[in-house]
What we know:
- The protein is built from seven helices and 36 strands.
- The chain is mainly β.
- It has one domain: Regulator of chromosome condensation 1/beta-lactamase-inhibitor protein II (Methylamine Dehydrogenase, Chain H).
- The strands form ten sheets. Strands 4-3-36-35-34 form a five-stranded antiparallel sheet, with helices on one face. Strands 29, 30, 31, 32 and 33 form a five-stranded antiparallel sheet that branches. The chain has a four-stranded antiparallel sheet with strand order 5-6-7-8, with no helix packed on it.
- Strand 23 and strand 24 form a beta hairpin.
- The model is unreliable at 1-19 and 197-219 (pLDDT under 50).
Amino acid sequence: MPAEGRVARMRTGGGLFYLDDYFNGPLKQWLSDDDTKQEPAQKKKQPKYQKAEIEFEKSRKQSAVREENRDLISSQHLQVKKSWEAPGVYAWGSNVGKVIDPQSNQSVVKLPKRIPYFDGQLLRDIKLTQEFGAAVTEKGDLVQWGLGYSKTDPSPVETLKGKDISKIAVSNDRIIALSSTGSVYSLPAARNDQDTGAKLQPQSSSSSWIPFWSSSGAEAVNSRILTPSSLSRGEKVVDVSSGLQYCLFLTSKGRVFSAAASTSEFPTKGQMGIPGLSWATRPQGPYDQPHEVAGLSGFKIAKIAAGDLHSVALDQDGKVFTFGDNTFGQLGIAADAGFQKLDVPSLLPTAKLYANSGLIPKITSVAAGGNNTFFTVDAAEAGNEPVAGDLAPARRMPRVTADLWACGQGVYGSLGTGKWTHVTPGPVKVKALSSLFEFDEDANCMAPIRLSNISVGSTHVSATMDNVTRTGAGQRGSLNDTNWGADVLFWGGNEHYQLGTGKRSNLNSPSYIGALDGGAGDALMGRGGEVHRFQLTPRQTVRLGEDGKGRKVSLEQKVECGRFVTAVYSSV
Length: 572
């Protein structure tokens, strides 16, 4: 029987009832017209997946000019080129002291912004805080600005001139300046404090108040000379570092001196490394006279670093000594009741960090800032056993691993470990910047990627990678031959937008930021909307200006993390 002719029969009472008569009869009348119209639509199946729309990539702009073609294909090449054509200073973060933009009333600057005063200039050093800024020009003169310098005019002004300053450090309210000859000067950050007192000619060496005329005679600055008087023949100060209330000096013979460096508060956390030293027990003489850190005698110190309230010293053999405040474990030891602070240098036990690993660690650099300490380690395999197997040199892994360790406060993410740790019981490895390798084409082998510089601010950090860079793309190269710089990553507190991400959220692991120009250069090259990571230009001798028509100099870009402010500057 055909399907369409089939009927269902039901025996009811005395007869048969056909179902098709029921459905085609009374039931059909009960259904409304709307219901019958919706019936086909309900039966129609909806597509399970939405059909994809194919969008083809637009062809990039074509150029027959070699240099323009390189700009088109590489954001990093364009960044390197712009750093040579227009050197200067970019800054971002807190602007409450008008340090980033003296003419703006904005309290924060969210993205990198040029400081016009330094356009076209190369600097020896720069230090920034919320309240004031200080920089050393190419000639060695000191420039100061910000509301912390002048309440009436926060614009940059040259102050200490003719002293051939090579490096500076800043405390709460003073600037410590080191000259190329080894002299150490301490001057107030505020202009009013510099103008007070009589203006006298300088004396050769003293630790008392010594105001003097600058050599040019254009500006009189009230200053103190802090050069230690106990230096031996041929010995001079070669490095300075400062915390909130004190400063450290490193001499050419590996000795370390410390001195008070603030007029508002005397150091009390042991950060000067002098046992029992306080305001009440200080020796006779000026309160800021230098003291040799006797606990480091016998060790030739190669590097010093100062946090807000703690100190770090690295000797030439890779030993690290810490002293000062240990509230957050920034000395690398547990911050229990017995070690809240140390006023004598303590050796950091780093060997146990690689126990049972077969690696021999050697610390290569240290950095400190805020309530944090960082140190880099080269961990080498023990012995000289040949590499197992018959691998070609290009396929062998290096026998040295480069690691980064951190300790101290991490509630803002400044440890870089991916965790929000309040206190550390000991050093923790920053895995994102440890055990990294790259292929070295010149040496035809794998090589560890180390860090060339770490800059630590109050709550945020930057790390510059020592990766392979290139600055040799010239007129003889191909159209696709490009330059590129060193990777730089940021992490930590971002409450004042000091990380340069444009957002206010803190970061607990190292992250890239965009190009300094905010992508304006990429947009001109047809890369609008794309985000390309920022890279620092390595040192190179070039001609400045557009098309290389300016003077010939050797320069590089550097990052400086300050107190809630960050700067990138062209360094001579």
